[in-house]
Amino acid sequence: MRNRRDRTRAVLAVVAAAVLGAAGCDASGGDAAGARDESGTAAKAKPSPTPVWDRSPSSVAAVGDSITRGFDACTVLSDCPEVSWATGTEASVDSLAVRLLGETGAAERGWNYAVTGARMADLPAQISQAAARKPQLVTVMVGANDACRASTAAMTSVADFRADFEDSLRTLRRALPKTQVYVASVPNLKRLWSQGRTNPMGKAVWKLGICPSMLADADSLDSAATARRDTVQGRVEAYNKVLEQVCATDERCRFDGGAVYDYRFGTDQLSHWDWFHPSKDGQAQLAAIAYRRITAREPVT
Asked: What is the pTM of this model?
């Protein structure tokens, strides 16, 4: 009996030691040799996934229309790319490229391929030019000229707008699979009319043929003029929906969430040459919007 009790005590002592040993391992963070899998092999720590979106790209190429060219921001009827919201170098604007790359970097690694008067149909060719530079980020702002036509009937159809934007992204992806794309929404043209119509000079300039589908007969508030403006506005909203939907199919594309369209600009943000294009202050506001979207940890939804 005594031998049996001695053996029992010995077994209990071994079990207690094992339990205490296990508890000690847990308290100190586990096996000193590292965690092991079921086969007893040391398990390797899983690396953190690399974010798809780089919030600090090292080069920027801009495509689009007269807004990105800084048209009428410096002198009448002239491009002024040095104040462009996307790639300009003038200090007062603090462009997207300057914010991301610094002044020297913006001058060396910021390229502007936008063209005054361009529409969405012109974007694939601009994208091809930009791709030759191998930029890490491409900015897109286009669509106002698709809505600003001689009449509402002449506006670009939503289907064509979508097809040309999809073609643009395919063109980019064939050349640069990992380049990021920032897409700005089309500005609110009806708000532009409501702000500019308070200025006699602005209305006089508009009569020269600036965005007639929206701005013709600026003082008219009859049913026909109201219906025309509402039609243009509806088309702009449809364009923005296309930009959002197509961009969402590409993991390296960010839409601005309608930030440019929603921005409540006033006359200080409009060129005092034509009361249509952004002034230097307006360009600075566009740069700030883009920078916030591009450097955000998560895309706007």
From this structure: 0.83
